[in-house]
Amino acid sequence: MHKAFKITADIEIRKNGKLFLDNRRIELLRRIRFSGSILAASKEMKISYQMAWTYIREMNAISPLPVVTRQRGGLNGGGAELTEYGHSLVGRFLSVRQKHEEYLSVLEEDMDICFSKSR
Fold this sequence. Notes:
Blueprint: E1 12-15, E2 18-22, H1 23-35, H2 38-45, H3 49-62, E3 68-71, E4 79-82, H4 84-117
Antiparallel strand pairs: 1-2, 3-4
Helix pairs in contact: 1-2, 1-4, 2-3
């Protein structure tokens, strides 16, 4: 069924007024998980390494447990990884986002029904 209306909204999770998670930060976490590197993840997302680190520092500061840990250079170079808690945050956020998208779809159907009756 074609929907005449499209409702869009993004999810932001905040704590004490500070941004904790949103789509961009979740994407960064997902890319760190697959690449094992903050630098690689930031390049893939076309954001600066400094911005990626700002996101990570903010998430780690707000979170009750670390979200990302890093290992400084060495023989094999440095790296970063999501903690178990970080993995669970990504999964929970994606679940909330899916439910949110389903709800928006229901609202769109309501809008279509409402406006098709008014014609």
